[in-house]
Structures are given as C-alpha cells and as structure tokens.
C-alpha cells in the first residue's frame, strides 16, 4: 500500500509543524494535532497501471495493475479535511458489491 495524504495547514493547532510525529497514522495526526476525526470518506476507485514514482517506491515491474483510491475525508460538520491518493496491489484488496433493486420508489 502506498498513500499520499494532503491536509490544509490551517487545520493544525500548533505552529511548529516540524514537531509533528509524521510516522503516526494520518488519523492519529488529525486527532492529536488538529482535534479532528474523519467521520466519512467519499472515494472514487479506479484500476490503474503502476507508473513513475509509485512504480519506483513500490518496486514494481512494467504493467503491474493497482487499485487506486482518490478519497476525500470529511469531519462531523461535513467539511473536507483530508485528500488521499492511495495505491493498492490487486492482491491486497478484495471488494464485494451488493446491488439491489428498490421497489416502490419513483425516481
């Protein structure tokens, strides 16, 4: 798994961002340094081929498929507070989708 997370600087409750322990999970960083909890994520999922920096960091060969998440995290007030670009090897991810017809509604 490789993830790139973006946070607005204005969210942080401290002045010295260099004092942050960036090895913590992004959720612990948000909780500890911003006093924010992610309540909901909106995610676009795509199949992509590993390229460039991602390919190099994950030490992948040519034409290796990845599952890519383009994700926005929202706080309790429904404000976007986190943008994540996440790459998963296809053997690290399994998805089940249930699609059901809803009767009795006129859309």
In short:
This protein has 107 residues and is of the alpha+beta class. Helix content is 14%, strand content 33%. It is built from two helices and four strands.
Structural commentary:
The chain has 107 residues and is an alpha+beta fold. It is 14% helix and 33% strand. The protein contains 2 helices and 4 strands, in the order βαβαββ. It has helices spanning 26-34, 52-57; strands spanning 2-6, 40-49, 65-74, 80-89. Strands 1-4-3-2 form a 4-stranded antiparallel β-sheet, with no helix packed on it. A hairpin with a 5-residue loop joins strand 3 (65-74) and strand 4 (80-89). The termini are far apart. 7% of the residues are buried. The model has no long low-confidence stretch (mean pLDDT 90).
